[in-house]
Amino acid sequence: MPSSSFYQAKRMHGVCKGSLYRQIEKRPGVASSSSSKVLSFAILFGVQLVCYDSKQAYDDGDRPMTMYLVVALSSSGNDAFRLVTHQGTHLLCRAMTNQCREVWLSAITAGLERSLAEGQNTVEMETFSKVKPRSHNKRNLKHQPYCHSCGKMERLEFQLIKEGTPILQYGEEERVDISENCFVAQGVVDHVSFVREMYRYQELDQYAIQQARYMVLKKLKPELEIDHDNPKPLTSQLQLTKTSPSEVAQLFIRPDFKALQRASSTLHDLATEFEQGIIGVLELLELMEQSLGIRDKEMAALKKQAFRMAGDMGTSLKMLAEQALPTEQYTSTELLQCILDFLLDLCDDGEIQTIAFYWPQLCNIHLQMLPPTDVASLQRIELMEDFLLTMAAKHSVHLAIELIWSHTADLEDAKTLKYCRNRKFAVIRFLCELESMLFDFESGWGGGSVTVGGYLNPTKHQIMLLKNWMAEIQKYRLTQTEVLSRSCRLDKLRGRQSMDEAKVGPEKLAEEALRIARNADYLSSHMAFTKRLCDIAEKLFHQPVPERAAMLQNELFRLNSSGAMGGDPLNTVKESHTRVVRIPPTEGHVFRSKERTPVLLLVEVNDEGVTESAVDTLNQQFKSEKLKQEKRNQQEDENHLKEVNANGGEPTAAASSESGENDDSADVEQQSEIQPQSESASEPVKGASAPQEAATAVTDVPLAPESPHPSILSSPIPNTPGGTLVEDPGSTEGLHHEPEQRHALRRFDGKNGAARILTPTAEKEMVEGLVTQAVVNKLIIPSLADGKEDEAEMNGSEGMNGNGEDRSLAPALKRISSMGNATSPREQDLRREVLNSIMMKGMSKSNTIAAGATGAVQRHLQQLDQRLAVELLMTGDAPISSSSDSARHELLSLGISSVAQDEQPELTAEAKEENDTMEAIRLLLIQYHVAQGTLSMQDAAKALTPNMRRKGDLGTRTFMGREFPEIDAGDIDQRLVGCGVLPPAVLQALSLWKGGMITNGELLELVKKDLEYVKVSEESQQILNEDSAFWQRFAFGERWAEKRSRIAANSHEAAKPGYDLIGVIVKSNDDLRQEAFVMQLIELCKEAFHEAGLDLWLLPYRILPTGRTTGVIEMVRNAMSFDALKKRPGYGKGGLKEHLRRMSQFAADPGEAFKSFQNNFVKSLAAYSLLSYLFLFKDRHNGNLLLDTVGHVIHIDFGFVFGIAPGGNFSLELNTPFKLTEEMIDVMDGVRSSLFSEFVTLFCCGFLALQAHTNTFVTLLEITSKGSTFHAFEGKNCDEIIAKFKQRLCAGKNKEETISTILDVIKEATSSYGTKQYDYFQYMSQGIAQ
């Protein structure tokens, strides 16, 4: 046998391990029972000897070959010894060496001595006689296989595991046949038995070390007082002499001290190191106090404070992983305890969302720690489990649900993966303890009926053992010294829940009991409901594709009629509980997929935390803000009109502030040139007297006040297309969950422990300056008559390039080669306009990018003037100048307006819903006028412009016998500008809504019902759908607000204050854990962009894996895949850009709307392109790219990341940095446009923002990839994956080198061959549009 199969015996932390030959000399009741010698890998804890086939079998979690309870020991020969087991078996054991034999003898002797000292016996093993087979047929029972745990006979539907496991409680020392359920339960029993034995050893170990410490202290200083009840560090009170070491050494040879060494392997190791001179007397005492958990409380508090001052969440997570999973033997748990207490402090400070962000990593760390292998590992596991149980039971039941789903998925992995099988029984034990905490069971054993489900079905004897041993473990836990400062488990054991009512009060006790009951009910209902949804998706998977829709509808009808609804299927972490009340059966949809069955469901939910009083309070606050804003708007309108009249009817470029300063005059002048504003603009121009109020006006989305100036009311809200905010409330910004702000990238050493920004925000200005200078360099005029460039320009001064700029930046400033150079005189003159505009904005300090390029612009203008003068002398011709306002306006926008976009405020949920409702009503009114014939399709664009009707053109209309004055829609609300005259019924509905009498959904439903539609023939309808650009506005189908109001109108639950409609996708036959991790990275990137002040747009959506092959995904609202969009009728030949133009054509201001779509496209495309490059998003066909209703690009489906791709090493996308097609570039007006320059700038700024958090990203990757089952990590070299990620993130490079690399990446993406080829392959193989 190879030497690698031999392992030296080693005793440490209550466990003795090593290779051991064993041979059975005699079995009780068997005449000839000797066996051959077998080499095993043996584990001894207490008096229990467990033997495995090999060390590999032990590591893989295989069940042992034999298990013995030792009752007697005798020495035999040089390296042999004999054992007698509880069942009377005689074993002859032989160690590898004589030294190994001594280790085994010492360990077995210590176990027997402790057993005798405690009076321990194995009564629980003797009470259970061997199980006999149970069957109705009494014949031939002797030779039929049966389960040796439950006695059931093997049948076709009840298969046995042949030679499955030993069963000590029935005296079965070797493997016997057992059923699957009993096999799992027996594994849990043996695991709990091991934990109990570790606690027994730890108690004896602590006693031995405590006695040894007492003996040493009394030997050195007899008068020293030692308090055993409240021990404190005493080394500082000792005064050592030269004879102190010898005095301590004399103690070690005493018989009583030798007995203590045999009882404690830790004490034996310390004594050995002292005798060898490795440690001294003080070090010996300090290590003893460390092992006993005796620490200076003041020093511990200082360490905790120092850690808090120096730590952020990324650092905390990394240190937690290092302490929880040490690479070498590590006994102290002080730092681990400090970190976990720090995380609990964050929760108490209201930072539960921060912990929730890192919750998957915390769960994975716990899984990697399992199972315990000795006392030291058990101590670390107990601290970690204390933290997890406290978080789940005290702070958030939603975190408890995620914890259960992650661990049950690991149980599913254990069926096929060895490294998961090793911890299977420990995971089941923990989930049962979690259930006991959540349901407030007294015994500490929950049974696992909710958390574990069908994984654990023990027999009555196994249940008895589990309950008794868990109760014994709970008693040992009460004596532990190294515990967290706050532990729900220990609080329960110490009777904190049953304190004096006079001290706590019966009301508090009742509230706590009610909270526990509600959490338990929510957890059990959520688990059952979500499992049922996943079962429906799994059931549909096995059905033919044409039959799936009808079966889904039947299943949903059955589910609704059963009344067995549950919690929020997405399990969003928040304080309140969200319950599912109904799933509309006819609204479900099954995607046509052969491999998987994604099921789209619309779910009606009710947030129990939203009460009528809370809604009334919010409505009052919202209405109050509206009234205040209306007054502000009215006052500003009056001031503006006065200003116009004072200037002879001409508005000024910008109003001066009260202090007389006007730093934004250049912005106002350029804005007035590019987009002249009406004399009666309702909002003051930027730089007016109340910029802060103007910003608030856009955020609050006020209703237009009733004003005598209809021209003012009909003006659109600034920065919005057609009066609708650019951040469309009906778009993907309106995901149903709005989690609290997370501080995943912040430090917590601010005032009173508050989070503070960790990312420096000055990066953007520097990056924008560098990238803009790179663009400006491309505007250098080429050579003149001689055909050569000026020598001074080429050479410049030493160390500088031709522009007077540092040569070291040249590689970074010359990457965007595709910007091109103009050569005609007209283009030169127009370029002068561009350069002058950049210089003027830079000098006014109103534009960061222009300010960074001012010096280079001045030099370019001087060179341009010199060359024009030379041309005049040589040709005698006057320079050609361009006075075209349109060309001038177009060039003024290049590189300037797109990069100086004002940040658009983020709307509240109420404002988003209200704007979405107004947008839906606006489209309905337009459709109404077209259908009535009052508006032709040819004149639709003209009719929908602002000020479509004036007050004098309006008449009266008769409705229900009464005469009503005609009112323009824009007079009622600015967001309805251009919708024409309101029908009386619609006017009444809007009046009720403005008065607060009806809700948004009720308003929309009334408008839809009351509008007098005229039916159009099918032929006319087809012409409208195919030929009219008007109907392209409806390319995305029914808007979410319309869908919500339609479903709410038919629901009895809609009257509840917390009612809402959410969309989820339930998937089967697909592992979503990897996608959930990628979504976590996307959310982290979004926070990094936000902290750095970058206008990059990402949409993290909720993904909840519920197992290895099932999960729930949040539906992205108001968005459609590029594939589906291209296949819709009327998409046209103009591509994506033309589609966006058609969508914006009928806005109140089509030009501004189209610019808004383009800007949204650039912000989102830059963000997702950056992430695609860093995290290697592959499989980027047009079915995995979405476009929402306001132009945002959204990436979905992250099954191929971090180096894996369809086709493996032959993937067409392998060398493509990210997807950037010609169609996408065309939306940005080409590579020579300012939008493309903005794309490059945002890409570079975002890259540096993420680079600042390299350590945090690496920490997430390291923890997640360790022992991971993700396709991207399983079986891969994770160290290499992380190293390549750091290389892509340019870790270690300075900013100039980083930007140079980024520009090379972008250039490569613009001409990637693989992008086109992969789209063509997907079109040919899957029919996905190119």
From TrEMBL:
The keyword Nucleus does not apply. One of its GO terms (biological process) is phosphatidylinositol phosphate biosynthetic process. Keywords: Kinase, Transferase. Residues 625-643 have a biased composition (Basic and acidic residues). Pfam families: PI3_PI4_kinase (PF00454). It comes from the Eukaryota. Residues 669-683 have a biased composition (Low complexity). GO terms for cellular component: cytoplasm; membrane. Residues 625-742, 788-808 are annotated as: Disordered. GO terms for molecular function: 1-phosphatidylinositol 4-kinase activity. SMART domains: PI3Kc. Residues 1041-1314 form the PI3K/PI4K catalytic domain. This is PI3K/PI4K catalytic domain-containing protein. It comes from Cylindrotheca closterium.
